[in-house]
Design a protein that fits this description.
It is built from 12 helices and 9 strands. The strands form 2 sheets. Strands 1, 4, 5, 6, 7, 8 and 9 form a 7-stranded antiparallel beta sheet that branches. It has a two-stranded antiparallel ribbon with strand order 2-3. The longest helix is centred in the middle third of the chain and has 18 residues. It folds into 2 domains: 166 residues, endopeptidase domain like (from Nostoc punctiforme) (endopeptidase fold (from Nostoc punctiforme)), CATH 3.90.1720.10; 139 residues, Lysozyme, CATH 1.10.530.10. Helix 6 packs across helix 7 and helix 10 crosses helix 11. By secondary structure, it is of the alpha+beta class. The radius of gyration is 20 Å and the shape is globular.
Length: 331
């Protein structure tokens, strides 16, 4: 996936040029809803109904899970064999699939079957692991991703990075206000880009950066690099800082920032959008700020500095999303 530029600017553009390119003709983005816009209208009633199957499952939680699993693609097929809008493995579908629309078939590729089946499966999991210590919802989501056996074995969410990110991302998305948030405006995006531009040359620091600016990081990156002795930014620390300057509070990690933003379709990308990298939305490992012309501003990795990079700097570009400023309302 390579998003097209909404505004083309050169990589040597100054902050003032970025502002001009963003604001000219852009205007403020209208009020929009983060999760409800991501839910196709044809699935909303299905999710609303199935989201009341049991007390542990809500429409927002179910919608967030489907967003995370397939992006509401009923034909999704993962490399490991998961199928359909809810990404059931064939063996799981065999035992937990239902004929939701009463047409006489249990079809994993049919959202009218798969969506209520996913809700029923979640409810079954919640009942099965109700005695496991910890947060029941977190345990339920972890079991959906890694299996009830793993949750029982570890007495809660297992120490698998993918599963932990999965649980955090879905809960962040589910708890994100629905029906009252708004996209960031062009002026807010310009402010964020300007803030990031001023940090060009700042060292990369694993775990470094906060709303106030560069900070010492911590230990350790997947390659064992520590940021504890370096004042600077990691990738999500930079984006968090940049948007804090625009008055937008982002979560700390790249995966959480994706969950707190609204996906943007190719052809609708504009400067200020966040560009995410990972082999799935549950395994996002990097984020940068789109500045136009196929370029991003980012803090790439240990040993580098905040800089401009081409948008295809990594081979696993997974999504582009626009931060939202939330209000409170449910679907």
């Amino acid at each position: 996936m390579r998003a097209s530029a909404a505004v083309a600017i050169g990589v040597g553009a100054t902050a003032s040029v970025v502002v001009a390119a963003l604001v000219q003709g852009a205007g403020d983005s209208p009020l929009s809803t983060a999760l409800s816009l991501a839910v196709p209208g044809k699935y909303r009633s299905l999710i609303q109904d199935a989201g009341h199957t049991c007390p542990e499952v809500t429409p927002n939680l179910l919608a967030a899970l489907l967003t995370q699993e397939s992006g509401f693609n009923p034909k999704a097929h993962s490399p490991v064999g998961a199928q359909g809008i809810a990404q059931f493995m064939p063996s799981t579908w065999e035992t937990h699939g239902i004929d939701g629309n009463g047409d006489g078939k249990r079809d994993v590729w049919d959202p009218e079957d798969a969506i209520p089946a996913a809700a029923g499966y979640l409810c079954g999991i919640a009942k099965d692991i109700k005695d496991v210590p910890g947060d029941g919802q977190s345990n339920m989501l972890a079991a959906y991703n890694a299996g009830s056996g793993a949750v029982r074995k570890y007495g809660g969410v297992p120490p698998y990075k993918e599963t932990q990110n999965y649980v955090r991302s879905i809960q962040a998305l589910a708890n994100k206000p629905v029906g009252g948030g708004r996209n960031v405006t062009a002026n807010e995006a310009a402010t964020a880009i300007n803030a990031a531009v001023k940090m060009i040359g700042t060292p990369y620091s694993w775990g470094g950066g906060n709303a106030d600016g560069p900070s010492a990081g911590n230990c350790c990156s997947p390659n064992g690099r520590s940021g504890s002795g370096i004042s600077g930014f990691d990738c999500s620390g930079l984006t968090l800082y940049a948007y804090a300057k625009a008055g937008i509070a982002l979560p700390r990690t790249a995966a959480q920032q994706y969950a707190a933003s609204e996906p943007v379709k190719p052809g609708q990308v504009r400067p200020g959008d966040l560009v995410f990298y990972g082999f799935s939305t549950t395994r996002i490992h990097h984020v940068g700020i789109y500045v136009g012309g196929g370029w991003i501003l980012d803090a790439p990795r240990p040993g580098t500095q905040v800089r401009y990079d081409p948008m295809d700097t990594m081979p696993d570009l997974i999504a582009v999303a626009r931060p939202t400023s939330p209000h409170t309302q449910e679907i």
